[in-house]
Structure formats: structure tokens, C-alpha cells
Amino acid sequence: MAKRITEQRRRKFTGDFKAKVVMEALKERSTVEELAKKYDLHPTQINTWNREAAAKLATYSNLIIGRGLFEDRIVEMQQLMKLIPEILKRRGK
User: So where does this one cross the membrane (predicted)?
Assistant: First the structure.
């Protein structure tokens, strides 16, 4: 009799589920191992999601800071654009 090998598919988790688990891990009321048992996950998966969340947060905060710098550049460009007609007038164009 031949053994039948069943194909196991990877589980897919929603962003909401990942966020819920990461938030619980950040509260530190339970250990990662306890959370892994509670949600039927491997502790490494929770740690990976924690690292991913931290990286996304860092990227998001950099975007916010970068946006502030970008907005400053827009103001500078607007000020320079206002000077163009005066410069052209001085040149006689």
C-alpha cells in the first residue's frame, strides 16, 4: 500500500490579526511562547512580525520627517518662482 502524502498549504494571516498579536506581545502581559500557544503560532513567527512592525514604524516615521523637509523645499521653490518675473524684467525680457 502506497503512502499518501498530503500537501500542506501555508496559512495566511490578515494584517489585523498580525497587528493584534504584535500589540499583545508589546504589552508584555504574556510571553511570546504563551502567545504562540494561544494563537497556534510558532514563537519565531511572532518575533518576525514584531521586527516587521518595528521596521514599518521606522519607515513611517522617516516619511513623516521627510515630508516636513519636502514641504520646506516646496516653500523654497514657491519663493524662487515668485522671483522669476522680477529677474526676467531686470534682464529686459
Answer: none
